[in-house]
Each structure stands twice: as structure tokens, then as C-alpha cells.
Write a structure and sequence with these properties.
Elements (H helix, E strand, L loop, with lengths): L2 H17 L29 E5 L10 E10 L6 E7 L3 E3 L5 E5 L2 E6 L7 E6 L8 E9 L11 E9 L10 E8 L3 E3 L4 E8 L10 E6 L2 E2 L8 E2 L9 E7 L10 E2 L3 E4 L333 H47 L29 H4 L22 H6 L13 E6 L5 E5 L4 E4 L4 E3 L1
Parallel strand pairs: 11-18
Antiparallel strand pairs: 1-2, 2-7, 3-6, 3-8, 4-7, 5-6, 8-9, 10-12, 12-15, 13-14, 13-16, 16-17, 16-18, 19-20, 20-21, 21-22
Length: about 750
């Protein structure tokens, strides 16, 4: 080969080596990108993976939360990353493989791609800071090195409100009804009370219930004024008030009872209920019920107070005008025969123009009201019943008294009962037998407690009258008179025995999961997992139960930083770099390969490298020997061919330097972070022997090429793309290769 060809070959190798791009890779994560997402890997998010987190549903001021970030989906084998941004509060105490940014820190990201779970702490904001907005992004790589091909990322935003302090229920006091303790039947009832709230919340949703004779009248709910039209004499009114601030109800209070009393409208000293003329101060009674008062000196006085058919006597002859045939003539009252001449002046007063007495009763027919009835001649009250058979001959409104009690059947409310005549309240029970003669709703009081049987929920028990919740237990004995499901409270904790899971323990009332431990964290035997039946204790406070046989059992009950040991190697998952591999626990260099496996691999690669170096040395020795032999043969033939010509001494500079990649080239750059740290071996170019004389290439080309067995194609151990966009491979034979856009070039 001529010097020019040698020089050209060396320059070509140098140009190829300098054209190999530098290898760079960024595996340290990026801050403040969670809101926008991992757009350097793909412009759009992927639903193939889903971020997972344990940020709280509500935050408490200054509280420190231990946060774990992970994701579901994807391969979770070739590398991963994350970024979290918080709008409020501060991030602190970064876990393994996590870095924080900001002062205070508001962004967290990974420091290497070899983890799939990351942890740190979040200190909640100061009070009244409003909502905290959390942006979370996660990335799963496919290991191809092509960022926009198989990598997948997804993000989400979480809004966490502040947990507000509890609301204190309001109170009501000074409840009263005006007027009190008695109110006229014509007076309205007005309810007043004082509303008070510890937080000065406005009153909203308070409940008012009115009770009449112990019965809740729902039509008056939430009214503060009861019009007089709704009250009746003898009723007892009271009210209950349950205060509310719109968020919580306070304790119910009651007013005193107000009794509705009768009034005397006309001021004559007789109450309206007994006064037949309530608006006339000169009259109070009307014995015969004819509408004229019995007081002879009053207005519209009745001249015949016991005769409902008479009330006036114009001529003062003792006979009422209605019965007086001559009301303006005191000397005459009757005209028995209706002949226009009074009986006193009529010689035959009963037969002035007549001579007949058909019934032979001594009364002429014209004067005989019953001319064909010898037993009757007159009908004084004109009721068509003869005076002889008329029990009330002077009362046209009455003619019979069946029970012989002196009150006509028409006026007698009980014509068949001699013991009763009136029913003042029209309830069907006579006043004599009616314990409440003026109350149409009541007539009997079996237990003599002053409350009628109809209104008395316990008519035979003098100690009870009301049962507001209708549970069969009187309000006096009922610890929960408004709750039909409860009557007793053994432990006096304010929760009835029926609803109290611990009715003998005042510190506990509920047990949602039914495991025998109370839900109140401050009470006796509290349940730290009130909704998990199989767990109740958590000695290290890490959120995992101490019961080894229960749900989410803590494999390390005394270690607050560990709770799982997936591979059962005695090292918790949070500390175990390989939680699912019992043979590995640490990854000191963070390359994704366990320390145990890496030691084995490094030993094997070192041995393979030593073997390869020895083989290369043998190959170089053989090549040098062949070149010397071929060079000598060529020189021999050239000398013979040029016999007789002037010999010209030829000198060739020896190529003694191996062709190397350009300065600064590192075939392993980026591999430690993106390829789990697989070692690589750069190929070298053996030094060429020095040439001492011209070589005839035709002789070399004539020599047959020795048969060389095809070496097996090495497999790809790892592949990545550096920051300049060049893609690299580490091969199973220890060599490195890069893609020049057309084919893979060995380096």
C-alpha cells in the first residue's frame, strides 16, 4: 500500500471518530413542571399510567404530613420519574432519590430513574390560607432511548381545603309567653326568648313548637305570635324552642304554661261564657230563652221570665201581650169565643154568638180550642197541645218532659236522663257527669291529674301526661322525650342505650366496624381504625394496624417508617431498594441494579475483559508477523523486477499510533444513568508495522483470502439517547455502538 493510501486511511478513521457525538443524558428530574406535564417526552398525557398519592382530604394549619408518590400502570421496569408542586405550605425531609427546590421548598423531583416510589414531608400552611393546590406528574420510560416514542406520563391536580374548627351550638334562654300565667280568651299570645351563639353566628333555622294541653299543634310551628282566634277558655298553652345557627342545633328549652281564661266583655261581673247578653251590661240571664233578659230593670226586660212565649204586658194586667186578646185593655184579657167581646164583659163568654158545646165540657164551641175533645178546651201557649196534657202549657216551645226533670224535652239535652239537662261544651256528656264541662275535647280524668283522658297519654297514671315521641314511655320518665328510639341513658353520656354501643362507658358511644373498640379516640379502648373491623391499634402511628392477621397489617409495628416487607427479607419496603426481590436490598450507586448482582456482573465483565485483551494481543502479534512476511516477499519481487535500473531508496514512516476516538469522547457517558450502569469497552485500532520497502499490491490481491468463521452477532445489553439526540448501545460483547442515521457504527 502506498504512503498516500496509508495516510488517507488514517485520516478517514480520524474523521469518523471525530464525527461521533458526545453522549449526554439528564436523569436528575426537573422542578416546577408538574402543572404542564413531562412534555419533553410527549406533548400529551397518557392514561396508561395514573399518579397515586396520600395527600390529606383537608389540611390542618402547621400539621406535617408524610407523603408518598407512586403510580399504577406502565412497565415500571425501565425507569421512572416524578414532580410535585404545591401552591401553599412547604416541602421538607426529602426521602431517598428525591430533591427539593425553593425557599421554602415548593417543588420535589427524582434524582435518578431507578425508583418507582418517592417520599417527602409537606408542612401545611398557616391558618386561613385558603385552598392548597397540588400538581402531581409521573413518568414511566420504556428504555428505548426515544423520548417521544414509548415513554408515558400523566399528571393531576388536587385541591385541598383547610379543615375549619368545629362549630359550637347556640343556646336559648329567658323563654316566656306574654301574657302569663293567664291570658284572656280575646288576647294573642307572644313568645320571646334570648338567642346566644359563642361564635356570634346569626340565628338560622331555630325551631318553635307550640303545645295545647300537652299536645303538639304542628300548624303553629315556628310562629312567635298566636292570634286569639286560635285559643279557647280553659286551654293550657306552652312552647318549646330549639335554637340553631344554621349549622348546629342547641339544647331545647320550654316556657311556662299559660292558661286561657274567660272575660267579661260588658263589665257586669258575669263572664261571657255564662252571660246570655255578653255585650249588654244590664242583662245576664234569660231563663225562658226567649231573648229577653230576666232583669226587670235592664234593657229589653222580660215581663214573663219563665214564659218563653211572653215578655211584654202593655196594659199591666198580668197577661202577656201575646196571650192578651186585649193587650191595651187592663180589664180584659180573653175573648174565649172570639166574638170581639172580652170574657169579663161577655155574659156567656164562651158562647157570645154561639149556643153549641160539642164536647159537653161547658165551653162553647167558638171558645173551645178543642170543641170535639171533652178533656181539653184551651191551648194557652198555642202549641196545639191542650193545656191538660201539655207539661208546659204556657211555653209554646215545650209540651213534654219525658224524664220528669222539670226541663222540657226540646230544651233538655238529655230528655231521657233525669240526671242531666245541659251539655255546655256539646261533647255528648252532661255537665253533671263531665269533669270538664266547658271543654268539648275532654269529659273524664281517670287518674285525677288535671289532664283529661283524651289529652293524657297516660290516662291511668297520675305521674305522666305526655309522650311526645310516642314511644310508650312518659316524658317525665323518658331520658329522650323527643326520640322515639331511646328512653334510657345508663352511662349518662347523652346517647341513649339503644344507640350507644357502650351503654356502660360514658367515654364511648359508637363502634362503626363492630370490633369492640370505641370510635372516640379520647375514650376508653379507642379504635384507631374505626372503619376496619380487623384493626384497632397502631403503636408506631404509621397508619397500619398492629394486628398481624388484620387488614393492612404492619410488618414492623414498632417502626413508624416501615410497614411492608413484600419480599420477606427482613428489610421494610421503604428502606429496601428492591422490595420485591429477597436477594437484594441495596443499590448504592442508584443504577437500578442491586449491589449483590452488580458485584457478580462486575467480576464476570472483568474476567471477560482480561480474556478479550489477551486475545487481542495474540491477534496483533499474528497480524504483525503476516505483514512482515508479505512485505518481505513483495520486496523480493520488486527488486528482481527492477534489476539494471538505478535503485532509489524508499523510506516510509511507521504508523505507530493507534487510531482513537476524538478527545473527550466517552462511550459510557449517559449509560450510568440511563442504562443501569452497564460497563462498556471501547474498541482500539492496533498499531501498524513499519514499512521498509515498496509493496506490490497485485501480489497481495492474488493471494487467496483465508476462510474466517462468522462471529455470532452480539445482543443489545442497553440502549439510550443522549442530550444531543444521538442514540447509543452497549453490546453483549462489551463494545459500544452509535447510530449515524444510516447504520450502527462500532466505537
Amino acid at each position: 500500500m502506498s504512503r498516500r493510501l496509508q495516510t488517507l486511511a488514517v485520516l478517514l478513521v480520524f474523521v469518523m471518530m471525530t464525527a461521533v457525538p458526545a453522549i449526554h443524558a439528564n436523569s436528575q428530574g426537573k422542578h416546577s413542571q408538574a402543572g404542564a406535564g413531562c412534555t419533553c417526552h410527549s406533548t400529551t398525557a397518557s392514561t396508561a399510567i395514573t399518579p397515586q398519592h396520600n395527600f390529606p382530604a383537608q389540611w390542618q394549619p402547621g400539621f406535617i404530613y408524610s407523603i408518598n408518590i407512586s403510580y399504577t400502570g406502565g412497565s415500571q421496569q425501565n425507569g421512572a420519574g416524578f414532580n410535585v408542586e404545591v401552591s401553599a405550605g412547604a416541602l421538607q425531609n426529602a426521602g431517598n432519590g428525591v430533591s427539593l427546590s425553593g425557599n421554602p421548598a415548593t417543588s420535589a423531583t427524582h434524582t435518578s430513574p431507578g425508583q418507582f416510589v418517592w417520599s417527602f414531608e409537606w408542612m401545611a400552611p398557616n391558618p386561613n390560607s385558603g385552598n392548597a393546590v397540588i400538581d402531581i406528574a409521573v413518568l414511566d420510560t420504556d428504555g428505548s432511548g426515544n423520548q417521544n416514542s414509548g415513554d408515558a406520563w400523566n399528571n393531576l391536580q388536587v385541591t385541598i381545603p383547610e379543615q375549619l374548627p368545629p362549630n359550637t351550638p347556640p343556646t336559648a334562654s329567658n323563654a316566656a309567653i306574654t301574657p302569663s300565667p293567664e291570658a284572656g280568651v280575646n288576647q294573642s299570645l307572644t313568645l320571646t326568648y334570648t338567642f346566644s351563639d359563642p361564635e356570634n353566628d346569626a340565628e338560622s333555622g331555630s325551631q318553635i313548637h307550640w303545645f295545647v294541653d300537652g299536645t303538639h299543634v304542628t300548624t303553629h310551628n315556628n310562629q312567635k305570635v298566636i292570634d286569639a282566634v286560635h285559643t279557647q277558655v280553659g286551654q293550657s298553652w306552652m312552647a318549646e324552642i330549639t335554637p340553631s345557627d344554621g349549622q348546629a342545633q342547641g339544647a331545647m328549652i320550654e316556657t311556662g304554661n299559660v292558661t286561657i281564661i274567660d272575660i267579661d266583655s260588658d263589665g257586669d261581673g258575669v263572664l261571657d261564657a255564662q252571660d246570655r247578653f255578653p255585650n249588654d251590661g244590664t242583662q245576664t240571664t234569660d231563663g225562658d230563652g226567649d231573648g229577653y233578659g230576666d232583669n226587670p230593670d235592664g234593657n229589653n226586660a222580660d215581663a214573663f221570665p219563665n214564659d218563653s212565649s211572653e215578655w211584654a204586658d202593655s196594659d199591666d194586667d198580668g197577661v202577656g201581650d201575646n196571650a192578651d186578646a186585649f193587650p191595651n185593655d187592663p180589664s180584659e184579657t180573653n175573648d174565649s169565643d172570639n166574638d170581639g167581646v172580652g170574657d169579663n164583659a161577655d155574659a156567656f163568654p164562651n158562647n157570645g154568638s154561639e149556643t153549641a158545646d160539642s164536647d159537653d165540657d161547658g165551653v162553647g164551641d167558638n171558645a173551645d180550642a178543642f170543641p170535639n175533645d171533652p178533656t181539653e178546651t184551651t191551648d194557652s201557649d198555642g202549641d196545639n197541645v191542650g193545656d191538660n196534657t201539655d207539661a208546659f202549657p204556657n211555653n209554646a216551645a215545650e209540651s213534654a218532659d219525658t224524664d220528669m226533670d222539670g226541663v222540657g224535652d226540646n230544651a233538655d239535652d238529655f230528655p231521657q236522663d233525669a240526671n242531666e239537662t245541659t251539655d255546655s261544651d256539646d261533647d255528648g256528656v252532661g255537665d253533671n257527669a263531665d269533669v270538664f264541662p266547658n271543654d268539648p275535647f275532654e269529659s273524664a280524668d281517670n287518674d285525677m291529674d288535671g289532664v283529661g283522658n283524651n289529652a293524657d297519654a297516660f290516662p291511668d297514671d297520675a305521674s305522666e301526661t305526655a309522650d311526645r315521641d310516642n314511644d310508650g314511655v312518659g316524658d317525665n320518665a323518658d331520658a329522650f322525650p323527643e326520640d322515639a328510639s331511646e328512653t334510657t341513658d345508663t352511662d349518662m353520656d347523652g346517647v341513649g342505650d339503644n344507640a350507644d354501643a357502650f351503654d356502660n362507658d360514658a367515654s364511648q358511644t359508637s363502634d362503626r366496624d363492630g370490633d369492640g373498640y370505641g370510635d372516640n379516640i379520647q375514650g376508653t379502648n379507642p379504635d384507631l381504625f374505626p372503619d376496619v373491623r380487623t384493626q384497632w391499634a397502631d403503636a408506631d402511628g404509621d397508619g397500619y394496624g398492629d394486628n398481624p392477621n388484620g387488614t393492612n397489617a404492619d410488618a414492623f409495628p414498632a417502626d413508624p417508617f416501615e410497614w411492608l416487607d413484600s419480599d420477606m427479607d427482613g428489610v421494610g419496603d421503604n428502606s429496601d431498594a428492591f422490595p420485591d426481590d429477597a436477594s437484594e436490598t441495596a443499590d448504592t450507586d442508584g443504577d437500578g441494579m442491586g449491589d449483590n448482582e452488580q458485584r457478580v456482573l462486575e467480576d464476570r465483565l472483568a474476567a471477560e475483559a482480561a480474556d478479550e485483551e489477551a486475545a487481542q494481543q495474540r491477534t496483533v502479534t499474528i497480524i504483525v508477523a503476516l505483514v512482515i512476511l508479505l512485505g518481505g516477499g513483495v520486496a523480493f519481487f520488486v527488486i528482481r523486477g527492477r534489476s539494471g535500473q538505478e535503485e532509489e531508496e524508499k523510506t516510509f514512516d511507521a504508523v505507530t499510533t493507534a487510531v482513537q476516538p476524538p478527545a473527550g469522547f466517552n462511550p459510557n457517558a449517559g449509560a450510568s444513568s440511563a442504562s443501569a450502569g452497564y460497563p462498556t469497552t471501547a474498541s482500539t485500532v492496533a498499531a501498524q508495522p513499519a514499512a521498509t520497502q515498496a509493496v506490490d499490491d497485485s501480489v497481495l490481491s492474488a493471494q487467496p483470502e483465508p476462510a474466517v468463521a462468522a462471529a455470532p452477532e452480539p445482543s443489545v445489553v442497553n440502549q439510550w439517547t443522549d442530550e444531543t439526540g444521538h442514540t447509543w448501545r452497549v453490546m453483549s460483547d462489551g463494545t459500544n455502538r452509535w447510530w449515524n442515521g444510516t447504520d450502527w457504527q462500532k466505537v
